[in-house]
Amino acid sequence: MNWIRHHLRDIVLWLLVFSIPFDAKKFVWSATPVVSEYFGIFLYGTDLLLLVFLAFWGLREMDWHAKYLKPLAVVAGAAIVATFWSFSPLLAAYGLARLVLLFAFALSLSALIIGKKLSLTAVFSALFASAVFQSAVALLQFRDQTSLGLRWLGESVIGLTTPGIARVAANGLAYLRSYGTMPHANILAAFLGFGLVAAVYLLYRARRPWARIGLAAGLFFILAGLIFTFSRSGWIVAGLTVAALVAYGLWRKDLRRRATAVIFVLLAAGAFLVPVGGRLIFARAGFSSEEPSVVDRVIYNEMGLLNFPEAYPLGVGLKNQVLVAERNGWYRAFGLNYAFQAQPIHDIYLLALADTGIVGFLALIFFLGWLVYGKFRAWLGGKDADTWFALILVSGALIFGLVDHFYWDLWSGQLMFWLALGILMGIGPRSPMDRISPSEGEGAGSIPAEGTN
């Protein structure tokens, strides 16, 4: 019976991680006549998997005395306080309930990892498989320049004539940016960045030639999908991420051949994709300080840094930032006069400051700093691979969070973010997942320690 229960847990968790990009949802209620995830209540398809995981396994495994629980409790407490005077208490309570679920998810993952009941390989295999699938959807969307009809998976209805859709322009022509089944191309790019980390990890770990060939092909496919999101922030974060992982592989003698294989795949992807989409890639690669996407981000962040802390030092309540900014006329005051420009602050830290106030913001920053700094110091003592990959996964998300908001306020982004944090909380130099002896055989552990074959 225990064997069945544990395998069911692994299956449910694998499906949950695989389903993160599926944005299928049911509308319940909106604080405004306009239905949007920014100020609406929805039930998501992934909710069922998350609740089953937490109810049957996660909450039982969670360490209620975990050291990271206290700063997270302070964040939740600040969000509770802000709920009482929020513009929409119902919306704030809904956001709070989701945040608490995410905290429980991350803490449960960390407990399973610490208790040797969950391997990084299992989590990364789900991320890799899902990223390959999303890349296939992305490539077909770009080919057809429209959505594929996957509404049951949460795919947005998109096309070149869809209002507000993300496009890339070159030589006077506009092209659709691929969304996958995500709400936006940037969120898909972030998820494919997670997929790249998973692909490199599994490629470093694989022993059989056929497995390495399949993983290399998957890595190429994910890179192709990432290119056609035309997400500049996604490209930059993915480039930094892969560079850090390749550098680690080149530094470790036992992984140099695998790292060289990754470099070869990167070069092959560049040699194939640049001729195919080079005109659009180069058109998208440049930045201008006068671009609307750049100008608007600066304005959103100025608003989050200047207006909200002064006017609402204890926060406006989760998912209330856009409502409050509209009610106070701050968008118009900053020159954002169009309805589509009423968007969240494009920085997860400033958005958390607006939502939970100064106390919640400081608690969140303390938690993130404590976690990353502590794990990095621990990694310096052992140089183990699992901690390095977890650190890179989280670091990429934290960098992306400087220029976008989805890790804080959109469900698929939130699941990604707290999945990465839960992994890092549980991983460490003493984790058994970075140690494998030749007698254990393939699949028994993680990346071989230095000196093993």
Key traits:
453 residues; mainly alpha; disordered C terminus
Which helices and strands, and how do they pair?
Blueprint: H1 2-18, E1 25-30, E2 40-44, H2 45-61, H3 69-83, H4 89-114, H5 120-144, E3 167-170, E4 173-176, H6 185-205, H7 209-227, H8 232-251, H9 256-285, H10 292-311, H11 321-327, H12 330-333, H13 348-382, H14 385-400, H15 406-409, H16 411-426
Antiparallel strand pairs: 1-2, 3-4
Helix pairs in contact: 1-2, 1-5, 2-4, 3-4, 3-13, 4-16, 5-6, 5-7, 6-7, 6-8, 6-14, 7-9, 8-9, 8-14, 10-13, 13-14, 14-16
Brief overview:
The protein is mostly helical. It is built from 16 helices and four strands.
Description:
- The two termini are 36 Å apart.
- The protein folds into 2 domains: 1-118 and 298-453, no CATH class; 120-286, no CATH class.
- By secondary structure, it is mostly helical.
- It is built from 16 helices and 4 strands.
- The strands form 2 sheets. Strands 1-2 form a two-stranded antiparallel sheet. Strands 3-4 form a two-stranded antiparallel ribbon.
- Helix 2 packs across helix 4 and helix 5 crosses helix 6.
- The longest helix has 35 residues, at 348-382.
